[in-house]
Design goal:
Layout lengths: L7 E7 L2 E6 L1 H13 L7 H27 L3 E8 L2 E7 L4 H31 L2 H4 L1 H21 L7 H14 L1 H26 L2 H29 L21 E2 L6 E2 L17 E3 L6 E3 L12
Parallel strand pairs: 2-3
Antiparallel strand pairs: 1-2, 3-4, 5-6, 7-8
Helix pairs in contact: 1-2, 2-3, 2-5, 3-5, 3-6, 6-7, 7-8
């Protein structure tokens, strides 16, 4: 359950990264502006505050995307919706690359927080609370906005940034599958805590966020189980992934791009036995990297 292009429209493109906005953002923006209106004397300021929220979330997601690209990953799309944003990134299947791609998002808020903290303190000392109350309220709101986003995203609850950072750190010692299992279990505990907080505070948006996090945490757990099964599967002699160098598992772990039939691409020499279509690219079940089938070069024989 993540936002997609469905129900979204394209805003612009920067550095090859397309930005989409979900239509429901406007509905939530209306209520958000309405809630913040009593704190200002003009409609312009709560509108500016919500636009600033939009810009902050966008910068956060660009932090993920650009960091992913800096380590050789792929990042071409960002979708913004009422519960935040998602940068569709595919970092190289290495714990260090994954860690940097995830940590760069909260790092944006970690830079903006002291900026607005110092600025709001300076304007308060200059007497803006009396001379420019709207501007002072806006700057204080930006300070708390970035502080709140930073604190929430660093919660060790998968798939929030904090949960993915925890998973990346564990990956160094536990490996890909076990690290995801541990992060998912910690995530379930966090979801339980967020759920109790949502019920206690009767906060609808926190409840929706908890449901979103819980569903994605469950997806992480299922993925970890799949990765564990793949790690224990017999391996095919004579081939290896050009990215992680692991031999491919024996079995129908690939699906035809045309007819969607499962098959073993190394048994059928890259062709779908159901429809005969040649598969020019092969994804690695272990690391997720996708590359030309011809690049799965021969490897020294190894025990299956």
């Amino acid at each position: 359950m993540t936002p997609t292009r469905q129900g979204s429209f394209r805003l612009f493109q920067i550095a090859g990264i397309e930005v989409f906005l979900h239509f429901s953002w406007f509905i939530v923006a209306y209520y958000g502006i309405k809630v913040r209106m009593p704190g200002y004397s003009s409609l312009v300021w709560p509108v500016a505050e919500y636009v600033a929220l939009f810009a902050t979330v966008l910068l956060h997601e660009f932090g993920h995307a650009l960091a992913c690209r800096s380590v050789g990953g792929k990042a071409e799309e960002i979708v913004l919706w009422p519960l935040g944003g998602v940068a569709y990134v595919a970092a190289p299947p290495r714990p260090g690359a994954q860690l940097w791609s995830i940590a760069a998002g909260p790092l944006v808020n970690a830079v903006l927080l002291p900026f607005f903290w110092i600025l709001s303190s300076a304007t308060a000392s200059a007497g803006w609370a009396d001379s420019n109350p709207n501007a002072q309220t806006f700057l204080v709101a930006m300070k708390y906005l970035n502080g709140g986003l930073l604190a929430f995203n660093l919660l060790p609850v998968y798939p929030l940034d904090g949960g993915q950072i925890l998973r990346s750190l564990l990956w160094f010692g536990l490996g890909r599958a076990k690290s995801l299992k541990v992060a998912s279990v910690v995530g379930f505990l966090g979801v339980a805590g967020l759920g109790c907080l949502a019920l206690w505070s009767t906060d609808v948006w926190l409840g929706l966020m908890t449901a979103f996090v819980g569903l994605n945490c469950w997806r992480g757990w299922k993925e970890a189980q799949l990765l564990s099964r793949i790690e224990q599967w017999p391996r095919r002699v004579g081939f290896k992934c050009p990215t992680c160098s692991k031999a491919p598992p024996v079995g129908p772990f690939w699906r035809c791009e045309a007819c969607r039939a499962p098959f073993d691409t190394f048994e059928s020499f890259g062709g779908c036995p159901a429809c005969g279509m040649a598969q020019t690219a092969t994804p690695c079940p272990d690391c997720g990297a996708i590359g030309p089938t011809a690049n799965w070069v021969s490897a020294p024989p190894r025990q299956a």
